[in-house]
Structures are given as C-alpha cells and as structure tokens.
Amino acid sequence: MAKNRICVTIIFLFHLVGLIGFTIPSLAVLFIALVPWHLLLMLGVVIYSHDVFNGRFMLFAVIIFIAGFMAEYIGVHTGWLFGNYSYGATLGTRLLDIPLMIGVNWFLLIYATGVFLRRSRHFNNKLARILTGALVLTLLDMLIEPIAIHFDYWHWLGGAVPLQNYVCWFALSALLLFIFEQFKFKRQSIVAPALLIAQFVFFAVLNLMY
C-alpha cells in the first residue's frame, strides 16, 4: 500500500538524517534538541499505520505508556529496578523527574517488536514470541546505553551500566509484550517492524562512531 511505503520512507529518512546530524559536531546540539520531536513523529507514523485505529488500540497504548513510565519512576526514585540512574535533558519535558517521552518510547518499542514477531512465520507460540521479543529489546538496549550516556539521555551513578539494568529490561519487556499479546491485534503492516530495524541500525552505527 502507498500509505505503508510513505510511512517506511519517513522512518528511514528521518533516522538517516538524525544519524548524519548526530555525527556532525556543528549540528549535534540541534539534533539532540529535536529528539523528543523525532519520537513524536515516529509515534504519529505508527498510529497512522495501524490497521484499525480504535478505542482498543488506544487502551493498549495508554497501558504501555503508563506501565513504562511507572517502571522508570520506580527505577529513578528507588534504584530497585534498573539500578541507580537519572535522566538528562535530551528527552525533554519531565514529570516527577521522568521524561514523558520515555513512556512514548516504551510504547513504540513494545508495539514494533510485538508486530514484528507476530508477522514472523517462525514464532507461532505466544511464549516464544514474548521471550524472543524481550531478548531483542534487551540487545537493543545494549546498543542504546553508550549513546544515551554520551548524548545526555540519562546517566548512571558511577558511570557503568549495571547488569541489573539488562535483567530488568528483559523482565519489563516480557511483561509488556505479554500485554501486547492479550490484545490479539490482527496482522499489521511492515511499518512498525521497519521502525525497530531503523532503531537497531541507528544505534549500531552510532556505537561504531563514538
């Protein structure tokens, strides 16, 4: 469909432009300031591409946003989940010291991964999809962490990323993917999986350059 081609083009084009902007020192400050707007654009593209935009889909989005936001709140204010960390300025407006965009990011990652695995012919078992998806998102977090620290997304007390972070990322991802599975969305287009692929490429390339 033309709609899906346009959405995929927007996803890869904006990730490519962002990649260029992040790697040119004179542009980096501008592109860092645009990170929240980039996430909102990706949110708009994903919502637009969803086959049936209705109350059920909105309920799912709200649940994932709130669950992701609350997990980060617990993490930042207690250190019980991910370890001891705090957010920088890059992700924009914060509520209770947590960027609102982190809830958006959790929604995008869970939805994209869930759709990707539901489209695969190799994962017909729900538990296999949940565990594989959690592993995929944990691997993505391993790519994100060095870049997030470098560009002031967040910072860890002591500098090093604790193993606890990855364990909790896996567990929270599995829980949120379990919720995704309960909604039994019909097979979606390639748009959301394209976003997941773009994220992997984006952060992998930045890791090679920094």
Automatic annotation (TrEMBL):
Transmembrane segments: 7-24, 30-50, 57-76, 96-117, 129-151, 163-183, 190-209
InterPro entries xref list: CruF-like
Statement: the UniProt record of this protein carries the keyword Membrane: yes
Alphabetically ordered keywords of this record: Membrane, Transmembrane, Transmembrane helix
Protein name: Carotenoid biosynthesis protein
Originating organism: Mucilaginibacter rubeus
